[in-house]
Amino acid sequence: MIRADSLAVRIGRALLLDGVDLTVAPGRFTAVIGPNGAGKSTLLRCLAGEIAPASGRVTLDGTPIAGWDLVALARRRAVLPQQVTLDFPLTVREVVTLGRGPHRGVADAAADRRAVDAALDAADVAFLADRSYPSLSGGEQQRVQFARALAQLGGAAAAAAPTYLLLDEPTASLDLAHQSAVLRVARGLADAGTGVLAILHDLNQAARFADEIVLLRRGRVFAAGPPAGVLTAATVEAVFGCPVEIVSHPKSDRPFLVPL
Questions:
Q1: CATH architecture designation of domain 1-61+164-170+190-260
Q2: Which residue, 27, 41, 62, 79, has fewest beta-carbon neighbours within 10 Å?
């Protein structure tokens, strides 16, 4: 389990996170939502071990993230950041294969190929495998980076202990079909035992796919729990300043938000 306890992050006088508690559990999909500037990406970077909090701590299986060997940590958790800058003329397959780096010496070449092929298929970029990465559109590059993260967690080498996938706005720049496709893959990973955390702006997508929603406002947890408990009309208007009506989704028991 990835656990955050009383996280606080400061930059100068600005308090970006203030006493945030959160868990990413195996087999669970957690969506983090909130207005712009609420601290969502800062929280994900803390969970990933990219930045150290001013106070509080992040642990994986009870061990502080900072105490993990970097390669061992990379075998357990993969991160998809908001933006990835890569200008080298690598092919799509080569970019996705970069995700297998932590498994060198543990997985054989055949296992690496299977993990890469499965990731290309899951992200719907197999038909782009031989294309130069810089030549792709922004949405295509986003899907390739998603495939790289999937390849990092794939294969027999990652199966000995629970794995974790941290996604920062994974649907940004994607068309409608691929937004749902990416989140369906993430949901399937959670159903198979991976702990998934995704920062999402689409509240209806969060309601549709997540087991738990954590709503941030001004660096603090405003509400957390199942979608129906967090996404109430009063809560959404209080945090986002947008009145909504909550109706029943026609094909599920999940809430559906209609802006008024």
A1: 3-Layer(aba) Sandwich (3.40)
A2: 62
Gap between the Cα atoms of 89 and 229, Å rounded: 47
Place of tokens 């150290």: 52
- Which amino acid, one-letter code, is at 52? A
CATH number 3.40.50.300 given to 73-160:
yes
- Contact yes or no for 101/74 (Cβ under 8 A): yes
pLDDT > 80? residue 158: no
pLDDT at 107: 80
Q: Which two tokens stand for residue 165?
A: 């996938």
CB 21 within 8 A of CB 66: no
Contact assessment for residue 187 and residue 34, using Cβ atoms and an 8 Å cutoff = no
User: Which structure tokens are listed for 164?
Assistant: 């974790």
pLDDT tens figures, 42-96: 999 999 999 999 999 999 999 999 999 999 999 999 999 988 888 889 999 999 9
Contacts of range 2-6, beta carbons closer than 8 Å, 24 or more positions apart: 2/47, 2/58, 2/59, 2/60, 2/77, 2/164, 2/195, 2/197, 3/58, 3/59, 3/60, 4/43, 4/46, 4/47, 4/56, 4/57, 4/58, 5/56, 5/57, 5/58, 5/59, 6/55, 6/56, 6/57
Rounded to whole angstroms, the Cα distance separating 39 from 145 reads: 23
Give the three-class secondary structure for 112. helix
**What does the pLDDT look like over 169-178, one tens digit per residue?**
999 989 999 9
Q: What amino acid occupies position 7? A: L
